[in-house]
Amino acid sequence: MNPFLLGMRLLWGSGRRGRIRFLLMSLGSALGVACLAATLTIPTIIAANDARVTARTVHPGYNKNAVYQEFLDPYGSQRLRRVFIGRTGTGPVPAPPGVKELPHTGEAIVSPKLAEVLAANPRAAGLVPGRVIGIIAPAGLSGPDDLYAYIGVPPTDLSEASPLGRFGSTYTEHELLDPSTLDILRFTLGCIVLLPLTIFLSVCARLSSESRVRRLAALRLVGLSRKDTLRVNAGESMAAAFLGAVLGLLGYLVVNEAMARIGLPGLHWYPADGRPETTTLVVCLLGCPTLAAIVSRVGAQQAALSPINVRRTGERKPPKKYGTLLLVPGLGVIGGYCVLSAMGRDPSGGSASAVLVPGAVLLTGTGLALGLAPITAWISQRLASTSKSLTLTLAMRRTEVAPGSALRVATGLVLLVFGASLTQGVLIELDQVSRRTAPVQEYSIPLSQLNDQQYSQITRLSGVDAYGFSAESWKGDLEDDLPRVEAVVATCTQLAAFTDSIHNCVDDKVLLIKDPSFLFDDDAQSGRVFSFPLSNGRSLDISVPEESIAAQLYDPSRVAGPSLLVPPSMSFFELATDRVMDREAQRTRPPGC
To answer: Taking the model in full, what pTM does it have?
Structure first.
């Protein structure tokens, strides 16, 4: 008889206890496979989001039939993207993904979420002028909560329009996570999460291993060969793991359908994005049963080689203590970080933390897996020697002899929770990394789009600490490689609101801005004269001075780019308001203020 079939027949004929053990092994494997599928699918969800955003990205070209201008504005805590289309001809124009044809003048095509916003809040209709004639399909949206619109307007209404070229790009744009952050996420999911999952799957494969080993030893004694004995055990483990893999994938699909509609903080996706790919299915359906077979083979080696010792329950070897040593460096690094943080010296950030923290976590997790058995045996020995209760003494002596049997299930569950909690912490940290952490919040507004009343209202908004202006010395064809500089038109007090520190600043003088954190602008050489265009058609010539100020600028910041500080007292400030960029800075406040 085939050893695999023999193993299944023996399992099914071993009574209720054997069938319950098989069911528990399958459910344990199902939980591990579901977590594994979620781990492998998160990068796929992010990649699908980036691919759709890249496919809809609009680029300028030489189209004579349409021009466009794109706007990105905040709507509450969400981003509202609008692409205004102006028809300049009757010929064909390219269409973005999710839209059959771009709207004409007076028409608009919006995302489903934006359509809900417009229906629920009539006052928001001014954000989307025109009649809504269609809904953008999922192929043209980053996710279900995306606020996006294509709006048809007269070409003359677009102040900075560009000829409509094409949609899509050969490289990824507007990434949900930058490459460095995504690499950290992949490392976390690949190492820290998969470690407890691997141990958990191996624990499920070795569930009730003592009784199984004794049963295998009996088969070996009645004449079954060593290889067939191992195959019998592998057949049972692989069958349980495969059934668990199928149940785990089905459970993950159900959870994905529900979570895609609920979403996570900062991330919503379509259910199709979270469905496992072929690689994930192969890893779950073939990799997990293979892992179970390897683990079962290791556990059954003793029964296949020395069945008599197994049946006689010979003296057990004490657990090895070397694995416990891994806890020393792991907990040492983690404890050091906790102590420094409590002292007010935050050690996080930098290249050292990127290596030390994941390394310490891996050492701690491995040390827990290898060190729980000897630690439990030592604790059981101490309790048994001091206890006066017969029941407790017998239990501790039993645990001292076989500490692995009592911790077999607990180890996997503890490490699974450990890995899940750690992953949650890393994701929270990544969310903080993706946010702006500078103590100022900046907003850039083209002054050419503001009338006098709007400009006056902006400068008097509550919570605005300072504002400045930025201008470029030369504007023209970007293909011409001509020297140019940027200037900030502000007083020293206004500039200080945008910087962490500033030194040697003097009002009413043109100064050179130097920041050791940024590369020096080679075009801003002392004595070189640059011409700044003014709104009345003339220009203002400014010479780069020798005097400079030392400023520690925030990154990212629009103020970090300009090389010159120009005082508002110059005529430049009065004449160039239609050409420069308005800068606002608002100090961030603690939650609840």
So the answer is: 0.60
